[in-house]
Amino acid sequence: MKERILMNTDFSRSKALNNIPNKKVYGKLLEAVQSCEVCSKKEVINPEGFDGVCPKCAIIHVAYNRYAEANIPIEYWGLKMEKDFIGNKVLLDKYTDITSDLKGHYQKGTSICFAGLHGVGKTMTATCILKKAAQKGFTCLYTNLGDIVNVLVQGSGEDKFLARRELVMVDFLVIDEFDSRFMPSENSADLYARTLEGVFRTRSQNKLPTLMCTNSPNIVSSFTGAMQASIDSLMKGYMKEISVFGEDIRKKKAE
């Protein structure tokens, strides 16, 4: 009997942290049906969705809906590390290590900060790990520091509560673009630091995996004073940093 992973339902998903348009999700689901040798020959499309799809398409539909709920950018939905990744082998090895034993890494609370220049494959690695976790039934969230800052600054009281709750409670969390450009002043850095310190502390105490991606060689330098020391201590005790070197893959593809 296969062991089932029960999805965490102790929190409501935050709309403020989700950027995936419903039309795009429907388009990806439609694309899967139309490219299927079985379903493309049947009338499975109706005004409200899809009915009677084959087992293969049903699995794809479940996966895509979980990706959308996790806010994983659509450009990464069809990419596979084993087939499409051409970056630093360190990232591929870490992806293989984590996805080969997701339950074990979840229990240990494995947390990593991928630090390196633009375009070396940090985001693809983190999102592909998140996709595998979502497929296994873990709750997942992809977000970036800019969106977290926007919720803190512009969100309603309910938005802030739901966003923080999700950041704290989700099984696997990815925070992308964790860089100082989102902290233009000392006051804003202190505000964000207090919120992030609480998120990191709670996730650390509950051994919940967190993956971060940054272009900065020293991300805690964005903060100041006591908050800087606290976040620095938390991250060093909770999160392993992996430095990633290499050329800009996006620029290379464009050429």
Properties at a glance:
255 residues, alpha/beta, Rossmann fold, 5-stranded parallel beta sheet, two-stranded antiparallel ribbon, 11 helices, 11% strand
**Segments where pLDDT lies below 50 for 5+ residues?**
1-6
Beta-strand content estimate: 5-15%
Highest CATH level, the class of the domain at 80-254: Alpha Beta
Trace the largest sheet across and list its strands.
4-5-6-3-7
Briefly note the CATH topology name of the domain at 80-254. Rossmann fold
User: Can you give the helix content as a percent range?
Assistant: 40-55%
> What can be said about the biggest beta sheet?
5 strands, parallel
N-to-C series of helices and strands = HEEHHHHEHEHHEHEHEH
| H/I helix tally | 11
Strand element count: 7
Shape: globular
Mean model confidence by pLDDT: 84
Description:
With 255 residues, the chain is α/β, with parallel strands linked by helices. The chain has a domain at 80-254: Rossmann fold (3-Layer(aba) Sandwich), CATH 3.40.50. It is 50% helix and 11% strand. It has a five-stranded parallel β-sheet. Strands 1-2 form a two-stranded antiparallel sheet. A hairpin with a 2-residue loop joins strand 1 (45-46) and strand 2. The relative contact order is 0.16. Residues 1-6 have low confidence and may be disordered.
